[in-house]
Structures are given as C-alpha cells and as structure tokens.
C-alpha cells in the first residue's frame, strides 16, 4: 500500500471537509496511530516517522459520511480505507472491560488540530495516549511470542527520547510510569533495546 505524508492527508481532509459542507454533514475525527504521531510532530520538537498508510480514528461514521470518505478516495486514487475505524473496533472488542488510561480513550487528551483548515473536524491523541497504544501493541505481540512491529518500536523509542529518559525506571511522568508497569513484557523489551542503543 502507498504511504502518504502529512501534507497528502491534509489535502484529503480538506477535500472531505468541503464535501461535508456541501452536503450539510458533520464529522468529528479523533486520530490515533501514525497520523496522530505526525500531527504531534508538526507542533512539538518531536522526531518521528513522517508517513503512514492511513488515518486510524476512534469514531463511528454514518453511512453518509462513509460515502464521502469513499468519494475522496476515488478522487485521489487511493485505498477507500484511507480513513478508517478498524483499530477502534478491534480495540474496543478486546479491551472493553479493562480500566483506566490503558484503554480509556475518552480519558486521554485529544488535541484540536492547529491547522485552521482542519481545526473544525480533526483532533488527535496526545503522546501519552499514543504511548499507551504502542505499548499495548508491543505487549500483545510479545504475549503471542511474535516480534513487535518495527513502526511501533520506532514510535515508542521516539516518544521515550522526547521525554528525555533512557532509564525507564526513572520516568517521572505518572501516566507513562503506570503504563510501563502495566505492560511488563513491553517495558522489559523496550529497556533491552534502549540499553543497546
């Protein structure tokens, strides 16, 4: 699948927003995953990967909005799942009954887009929320005795570097510290990587 940069996604979202206005439709996009990493990178002094296949979001879209998303895909000649909720559906079904910040997407900070053209329709998960998601993903892979995805590991290392901590046992951010203790396998795996760098 083709990779897209922030400016590519911005064009797609602006196009979607125009269609929403024309059809008197409304949408709220809460972005997570790779695109949210890029959004954070545009406003913070934060170095992370600059491309993603799609925009994962924590929303439920109406059939009318889904049709508009598909129209954007056709105009840009890209996959119709460029804006999707696949991650949300999988996550909620598996982690519905868990507690706190580990799965509490509603409790994480959602940052409105600073881009005036996108500010009405999109917000994105802050770094703490993304850290929780990436840790969960790595921990799940390790539980299944599989290697974690390289993107997830790269994102975690970038976030740890942003918080200026190589020693995970000394992280002062309470949310991050709590998450690391909750995802014990991921913490140990990440510590080994950081020690090798």
Characterization of this structure:
By secondary structure, this protein is an alpha/beta fold. It contains nine helices and seven strands, in the order βαβαββαβααββαααα. Strands 5-4-2-7-6 form a five-stranded mixed β-sheet. Strands 1-3 form a two-stranded antiparallel sheet. The protein starts with a strand and ends with a helix. About 5% of the residues have low confidence.
Q: What is the topology?
A:
Elements: E1 4-5, H1 6-22, E2 29-32, H2 33-43, E3 51-52, E4 55-57, H3 63-76, E5 83-84, H4 86-95, H5 100-103, E6 110-112, E7 122-125, H6 127-143, H7 150-162, H8 174-182, H9 184-196
Parallel strand pairs: 2-7, 4-5
Antiparallel strand pairs: 1-3, 2-4, 6-7
Helix pairs in contact: 1-3, 2-6, 6-7, 6-8, 6-9
Structural features:
197 residues, alpha/beta, 2 domains, five-stranded mixed β-sheet, 55% helix, 10% strand
Mean pLDDT, nearest integer? 84
As laid out across the biggest beta sheet, the strand order is 5-4-2-7-6
Helix-strand string = EHEHEEHEHHEEHHHH
Count of discrete structural domains: 2
Structure described in brief:
The protein is of the alpha/beta class.
